[in-house]
Amino acid sequence: MTSAVTITRHGGTGGRTAVAARARQVVKAYGSGETRVVALDHVDVDIARGQFTAIMGPSGSGKSTLMHCLAGLDTVTSGQIYLDDTEITGLKDKKLTQLRRDRIGFIFQAFNLLPTLNALENITLPMDIAGRKPDKAWLGRVIDTVGLSDRLKHRPTQLSGGQQQRVAVARALAARPEIIFGDEPTGNLDSRAGAEVLGFLRQSVDELGQTIVIVTHDPVAASYADRVLYLADGRIVDEMYKPTAEAVLDRMKDFDARGRTS
Ligand SMILES: Nc1ncnc2c1ncn2[C@@H]1O[C@H](COP(=O)(O)OP(=O)(O)O)[C@@H](O)[C@H]1O
Ligand SMILES: [Mg+2]
After folding, report:
1. Which residue owns the Cα nearest ligand 1 atom 3?
2. Which of 112, 144, 183, 225 is most buried as measured by Cβ atoms within 10 A of its Cβ?
3. What are the chain's domains?
4. Is any ligand 1 atom within 6 A of the Cβ of residue 65?
């Protein structure tokens, strides 16, 4: 039974801690002196394993910076980042590159697909580069779940935006990373294609036990998450569990109103 396999591999914690990633007192500052910008101001956060987390907040509030620091794509000024039990802050470049390759999946707004490769080749590319054989059963399941079975031989230009982004999502999932990060992964898609991709991300959390963190400014996108974190001026100022689009929108209006009166 595939579900039993899933439970051993992804349900529960499979020997991993219940927290997939942690930030402790993380400060990220850019520049110095008069031009110094504090993008993250002593951020503490736990990202629960097997949950879908959305990071929201006004433009410039530090969403991308937080995600990049959590994903080991950017260094911190002070504080610690952990992936499971591994402290990634302070890892040397080579180790960090290896860790990102082996343990983290990325979905970027620009899909970053190679135009000369077909959908399947794009999906397995990171594993090919890492010299790892894809688990056929798992790959099949991912491809079925994304609904790309009949598009595997197509090149990116022969696919719609939504399909291309689903290839990018499948690529992130295929290697079974401990955590997937997406910075506005549906930002370039129309609402129907966006819903397709978000529905699939949701499904990969529910059915495959995936841990996902996305940055979004869209209340509808955030409503697919289990938890929404709100950033303002580099701090986590609020959070919401089981968000609905209406509740998220209300909360955003609230912040706007407070911003205007203070
Ligand atoms: N490479 C950089 N150099 C200088 N300042 C930066 C850099 N990246 C981000 N910032 C600043 O850090 C703050 C947070 O940026 P960012 O994380 O991109 O916000 P968000 O993703 O919420 O829009 C902003 O004030 C931004 O101008
Ligand atoms: Mg950003």
Report:
1. 30
2. 225
3. 51-61+92-261 (3.40.50.300)
4. yes
**Residue 110 alpha carbon to ligand 2 centre in Å:** 13
Atom of ligand 1 nearest to the CA of 65: 17
260 — pLDDT class (breaks 50, 70, 90): low
What is this structure's pTM?
Answer: 0.87
**pLDDT per residue over 107-155, tens digit each?**
877 678 999 999 999 999 988 988 888 889 989 988 887 788 999 999 9
Q: What pLDDT digit, counting tens, does each position of 81-90 carry?
A: 999 999 999 8
Pocket test for ligand 1, best of 27, 32, 37, 237 (most atoms within 8 A of CB): 37
Q: Determine the distance separating the centroid of ligand 1 and the alpha carbon of 37, expressed in angstroms.
A: 8
Which residues are in the CB-under-5-Å shell of ion ligand 2? 63-64
Rounded to the nearest whole angstrom, what is the distance from the C-alpha of residue 60 to the centroid of ligand 2? 7
